[in-house]
Protein 1
Amino acid sequence: MDVPGPVSRRAAAAAATMLLRTARVPRECWFLPTALLCAYGFFANLRPSEPFLTPYLLGPDKNLTEKEEIKSNRLLVLKVLWNDFLICYSSRPLLCWSVWWALSTCGYFQVVNYTQSLWEQVMPSRHAAIYNGGVEAVSTLLGAVAVFAVGYIKISWSTWGEMTLSLFSLLIAAAVYIMDTVGNIWVCYASYVVFRIIYMLLITIATFEIAANLSMERYALVFGVNTFIALALQTLLTLIVVDAKGLSLGITTQFLIYTGYFALIAVIFLVNGAVSIMKKYRKSEDPESRSQVTTS
């Protein structure tokens, strides 16, 4: 039965009104947060119209022209950055923790980026229900708990830090190896959770130890350099292992290489830590031997 024209037009108008009302809801809900984010982005990037260094270089103290000031300003910035770089990385503890930061972060990114492909090979998603997202959430939560608990651990990181890095890097290598060789998805999930917990624990300790050996003005320089080196190493590793122009290895072979990568990190810090402990032990013995010589 046909519906009369006026009735159908009224129904269409009512439906259109309802659609407009419902269409306004998302717009009204998202307008305020979007405006706040835009305002935050604008004010966060505000900079002085003139750098504070310009009046100083153009003033009577230096008496430079604008062209000389621009050239001098660039050279001064580069010189300051280079001097800060040398001062920061001349500290052996900071260099040690920074090297571990860069190397381990490179391996961590590789494992996290390609672990989904490994899980897909172990248990294809079209054949069974998968819980990849839940595992990511659980590993993050347990990692946060481990980070909170590490504050209650009383240990001399200056003495045992390198040995700790070696031991836990070996555990990371074992977790990656188990995840790669055992063809059980639940074992892979458990190994991945252990892998992320250990990394989050160690990266927190490394961050604290690096910051403890720095002044606040140099935080951005050191953490920026460490992150840049990590990403450069990751790019190189991806080109060699994953990319079609490189070796283009299978996913299981890739994770076997990542296992060897973390094992190599463990060996490096084991040797370095053993040498450091021996040096400190000898230094502690020297005053005793000297005191015995003087008393005799």
Protein 2
Amino acid sequence: MADSSAWSPDSWRSKPAAQDVVYPDREKLANVLSKIRTLPPLVSPSEIERLRHQLGQVQRNQAFLIHAGDCAESFDACTQENIAAKIGLILSFSLIVVWGARKPVVRIGRIAGQYAKPRSSATEKIGDREVLSFRGDNVNGLDPDDRTPDPDRMLSAYFHSTATLNHVRSLLTSGFASLHHPQDWSLAHVRSPAVREEFERITEGLSDALEFTRTIGIGKETVSYEQGGGRGALGEVDFYTSHEGLMLEFEEAMTREFPIPSSLGAHSSSSPQSSPTKVHYNTSAHFLWIGDRTRQLTGAHVEYFRGIRNPIGVKVGPSMKADELVRLLDIVNPNRESGKVTLITRYGAGKVEDNLPGHIRAVQQSGHPVIWISDPMHGNTLTSSSGLKTRNFGTIISELTACLRIHAECDSHLNGVSLEFTGELAEDGFSVTECLGGSMRLSEDQLPLRYQSFCDPRLNFEQSLDVAFLISDHFKKERKGGGRTYGDVLYSELGGRKLAEK
């Protein structure tokens, strides 16, 4: 049943909050939050509504969603080079998917606000010391001597998010998107001849198509952007920001009441003479999600999320019961609005078969409109023999392709993918080394070479494009009536698990 009780940006305070941060200096906290409430929004209602519309297309299988970026951002990584590398990778990834799927891609970055991280324990042991767990740069410091939660870090998070978003906007409005084309992608890292042949076939076809469009005048401006010309069809893309809505005090401070844009017609007011309908937008990001650790039906996070107009995501893991999922949807989307809720499944390759079909059937029977995307990262983390957290590329693509297959078998569609990846380069100019395998066949003894994550391991540039090629190839075969991706040469050469005989 939907929750019919009154909602306000602070009504979550009457509920128990998982992953709550305890600030010793409450007066300082109050002062910081008061300051944040006066700061300008980072995103606008019109941008949020545009994303809602595009996610409606994703829900109807008319577009594909790419949700990607860092596990957790750091203040130190807020640099021109790192931001450009992240955006460039998302653009390259989406271009490959567009080529195979022949449908638009909606791009949502885990960027400009993804600073907090949930923890399984409030404390951790470092040597012979027990200290508070590191909760992200917007809470406390990575240094064991800097673990006391500091409200000023929320203010720093606001300004680092502002700087990041400002640079993202400047990149995407000055021709940056048109630079990320197949001729710039090196395949020198690909060890397998079979994989290299598949990748070359895709990149050659994509390059030919782009060259053809330029030849007939599409995407080729006679006057450059810098000289007053337009950005062109290939140079302008929509890009949206997101983060996990973990820090509810910050989210409340960034929640503002605005009228629904008048262009939305029937949604804006009941009659031309009445006042515009006002709703609450979280203006810290276009899209926010509830984590697997904070989705309790009677908890503070679900209470907060049910009242904001932003499109939201919900992480769905193996501990989520089917009836619980439906009840959660009743709470956060009682009016069953299109494009409102994205279900981000994260089971682990060994558990997806046991959980996804039941979740799909329960949602189908409920009649709730949802977007289904796969997070094949979080359920597949392991610890290497050297003690580094890592993930195996073969396991990642096994979960992803299992989701594609199961959705097809259940008369459903996988509408997108959620990945933790990075385009950053280490100081020596090479990609980071945090996940095993992929076409570069990264081995365990190579992990320490350029391991840079202070949170979870991320796919590097080459491994990320491996996933993009796999998805693109799947959709191309599906369009042409060919076989599915799972079980073919590209899948097996990249380390995917063999399907069990039925």
Protein 3
Amino acid sequence: MKIWCCFCFGEDQDSVGGMTNSSDEASDNSRLGFRWGSYGRERADFEEGKVGDALPTWEAMVGVGSSSGVRAVEALGFYEEPSVTSENLEFDGASYNKRAKFYTDILECNPTVISSDADNSSLPATSCYNASSVPSMSSTLCYTHMLNSSGVQNPYDSSGGRDDEADGSDTSKIGTLETRMDLTDDLLHMVFSFLDHNDLCRAAMVCRQWRTASAHEDFWRCLNFENRAISIQQFADMCHRYPNATEVNIFGAPYIHLLVVKAISLLRNLEVLTLGRGQLGDPFFHGIAECHMLRSLVVNDATLGNGIQEIPVNHDRLRHLQITKCRVLRISVRCPQLETLSLKRSNMAHAVLNCPLLHELDIGSCHKLADAGIRSAATSCPLLESLDISNCSSVSDETLRDIAESCVNLHSLDASYCPNISLESVRLTMLTVLKLHNCEGITSASMSAIQHSSMLEDLELDNCSLLTSVTLNLPHLLNISLVHCRKFVDLSLRSLKLSSVTVSNCAALHRISITSNSLQLCMQKLVLQKQESLTKLALECQSLQEVDLTDCESLTNSICEVFSDGGGCPMLKSLVLDNCESLTAVGFCSTSLVNLSLVGCRALTALNLKCPYLEQVSLDGCDHLERASFGPVGLQSLNLGICPKLTILYLEAPNMVLLELKGCGVLSEASINCPLLTSLDASFCSQLKDDCLSATTALCPLIESLILMSCPSIGSDGLLSLRWLPSLTLLDLSYTFLMNLQPVFDSCLQLKVLKLQACKYLKDSSLEPLYERGALPSLRELDLSYGTLCQSAIEELLTCCTHLTHVSLNGCMNMHDLNWGFNVLQNRLLQNLNCVGCPNIKKVFIPPAACCFHLSSLNLSLSANLKEVDVACFNLCFLNLSNCCSLEILKLDCPRLTSLFLQSCSIDQVTIEKAITNCNSLETLDVRFCPKICSVSMVSLRAACPSLKRIFSSLSPP
């Protein structure tokens, strides 16, 4: 008997009903990648001991023309085992199901010969394969051929697979290649319970114990053949193998009308059946009545009967029935135990239901079902609780009235896309969920009928184009949705349990009044987005926590009273007023507000916030804000640099640590009281004066980073106030008009970073305290880029300030040569030196005597007159000489250099080869746009420096 793996069926099965002739079977086997020969003769020869000639040859589907054979995989018992002799039984009894044996090195060995003393014959073992080469079980047909003949053992069986008395060399060889792991059957069963069917099929290929464990019927209660080309015989074999299966899925399989008959007749415990994409006739519908354990039936996208006859569905124990997207004229359902029924998107014209216990009915999108048919179907189910009649264009108010009278327990109704209903005189008193999307007949008059649904919790009125106003007083209402109601003007709600209100794209809405004692936000909120005409909002919601009024362009400043203390929302935590362009002056006094967003409020000129727990405020796009007062607030960070017209600032934030005023060019008055502030960026605050800086440093003593770049109004008096900042470590005075740095040297004793870019009024003597008197002993980084210091001052600085680690001299016009070869200097801590764009520098000479033991990065790019570079630095890793177009001499003794950039240099190939010869760690070389470097030079460069991994060149390879 053949047993087929339920995940091994390809798309090329040609047999119908499992009946094929020998030629078809041979072609199927060939297409599946197996080479059989004459199986019956080879089987007999094998059992007689003619192993060398008779063993069946198998090819795994690992690729076209693959020559690696795969031994018969004992997976899931796909072939019936031959009779086992007493000798074999005695052997297996000692070791079967005790150890799982895993082979490590043997997985990649060539075919070997393992001798057996029992019959003194040789068994050629096929090539083994590792896990990565195992063909996918979804495309490979797994057979089993139990090779348990006397004296012949499978060397890969869990029972050992070899004679203990065999040749010693073979024994030792196999012993060294195997790893043993004790796995009891119970433990293996528990582990396999976490695997899906694909993984179970793969696990079955490991050994006999795993095959047996993975084939346990507990794992095969569900036989899933969805969209698989399975034949009748294959399906029957699987049903015989697992007769206790409770669930079958043959959706998309060929010949479902025959497969389902097999399932019904062979699987007596079948509880769940799923099928579709085919034609089902009378035998199926009469047969399911005999399937007594069936509880759920799903039929999808199928043709029932011949399309003109009535289809009966009769079953005494069926609980769930789903017939969707099916082609049928009439259907009759008699299932006394049925609880849920779905006929969605089926094109039936008539439906007769005899289901007294039915709770849920879905006949949505049944366009051919007439109004009378809907009424008859629904009213015949007195216990109905949920009804979906969406997209049934013929349904009328009369039908809804009859349903309301017959189905008194109806809790959920979906009548969306029903244009003929207005709910006039309809009384659904027990209704909790009502969906009326795109109902053209729903108007303001319909609200009186909805008002009678006192138990209503969820109401959806989206796209009701004729609805103008909603006035409801529903004590249990939790959620209401009004989206794209074009004529909607007025909303008035009163509810004790309101949880979520969504109103969006109602262009005519101008008034909202909501009263609720329990508008709590646990994933719930009030959303009133894009209400362009909304001018008045009244809320009495004691527990409201989140409100979104994005794009409500007509809201005025009076909205602030609604959300301030005493305004009806005492628990409000989040408020979004993005793009409310009519707001000009916003002021909130709230003890609950945590998040406030005013993004895009371009007309806003004044902001006053007294919110002690406010943690986040967004002001992006408020580019006309002139006056801002924050006090007190709970903000930890604030960015006002996006408000270029800000002139007056008052800030009291006990928890603030980061403040950005970058770009507030007209800020003239600022009172900043932030005792925990550590970082202040006042870049480009051109109107900021000394008195403002002095007041700020007195109230913010913990500042560590202070950026005053392009603050020309800051002078010596303001710098003297820095003595109140004992923790100041970073000071940026770039682009200022300072002439004297003595206040900085006297006040900032802990300074580590000092930036003085483009301070053109500094004299050569301004930095004398640094290299003559040892000022700022903690200084590590100094930026003097684009300054006017002379050559001697720069040399003194680099010579005496040995504690500096990062120095930037970019664009220094007065810097000529960098020559450290005259005197033996003490150890320097310098790590990074940047001299980018120094037009007058001609020579750089850094010998070992310069003691630059820590120098790791040197950047001399864009130095147009640089001609000679001679550097000997043991730890230099990065050297940039790009765009040094006059460079002629390059000498390097840098054994740790990894990156060298010579882009757009006129240096020749020979000079480069000599320079990189001693750079044993060089990995990256950039010679793009070097006119003297040709494509042939690449080979010579690699030969000169074997460690090179990347050479960037603008030339195409030779």
